[in-house]
Amino acid sequence: MFKGFWEELPRPIIGLSPMDGVTDAAFRFIVSKYGKPLLHITEFVSVEGMNVGNPAKVFEPFKYSEVERPVIAQLFGTDTEAFYNAAIMVGEMGFDGIDINMGCPAKNISARGAGAGLIQNPKLAKEIIRSVKRGAKDFAEGKSSRDLDLPQTTKKFMAQKWQQSAQKRRLLPVSVKTRIGFDDIVIEDWVRYLLEEEPVNISVHGRTLKQMYTGEANWEAIGKAAEIVKKTETSILGNGDIKSVADAHTKLQQYHLDGVLIGRASFGNPWIFQGHYPTLPERLKTALEHAYKYEELYGTTFFHPMRKHLAWYMHDFPGAKELRVELIKTNSASEVEKILSLITK
């Protein structure tokens, strides 16, 4: 089995979980700087969109900085040929690995058979893994987006933006992120299907699609998956409701995992990966830095997505609620700085 960077990662692996609408390039940069997790995975991108959509918009979640490495591009969809093409394009972008999303519970994703919908279609799931591996291999052996049946706008975009990265050809490892089931818990049978295609890693979120993000993550089910996976060369990461590094290490030992991914506990708390509790000045300084990084990467035209991050930083100190109310109205980093300056005086 080809493992790529996974083989060199120190154990246990504590990484940042991919979360749509949250783990954009600005967030990952801040987490990299202050948390230093061992692993970053982008927000997911539709392979069908990568093949036909406006590249400037579709590829935006694939922005990353060098401090994030190893950084993995996450893909979702159902079209096997689109997955093949996407793997080649991801190779050209200079990523360290490719992750296939088989766990998103969102109705608009799963209802068309993508994300967690693939749990109900093991045959297609296996075909997708094979297609991605084939694309990764062909990229390593010299194939590029110029050779694919893509719109000229996409080919031009790839040539202009990723030409330098494309010259550094290497084989990328392929992993999967999934859930313990669709309606019911089927993780033991499901993980056996996935292992037939030898993904380098399987990350398991401890809820079914039906649960969405309600209730508690079922770590016993994750542990049962680990018993099966650990008999192979594939590694396994657990995910769901991890509150701290101490909590992570407890679960790592109890369920015999190679690592964990931390998700919602990282909101407004990039320090969680280091087990550090920030002072108020640290919290305010980092929130402002995050806002300026977001503006640097995405401009001020659509500052709205940054507001939730600002609100997440503001808690556990007197006046936090009032500060959140003001920050969620901001439209630029300079406005954020003006509000926070009143606190730091």
Provide a brief overview of the structure:
Belongs to the dus family. This protein is 44% helix and 14% strand.
Task: Write a structural description.
There is one protein chain. The chain is of the alpha/beta class and 345 residues long. The chain has two domains: 271 residues, Aldolase class I (TIM Barrel, Alpha-Beta Barrel); 65 residues. 44% of the residues lie in helices and 14% in strands. The protein has 14 helices and eight strands. Strands 1-8-7-6-5-4-3-2 form an eight-stranded parallel β-sheet. Strand 3, helix 4 and strand 4 form a beta-alpha-beta unit. Helix 11 runs antiparallel to helix 12. The longest helix has 19 residues.
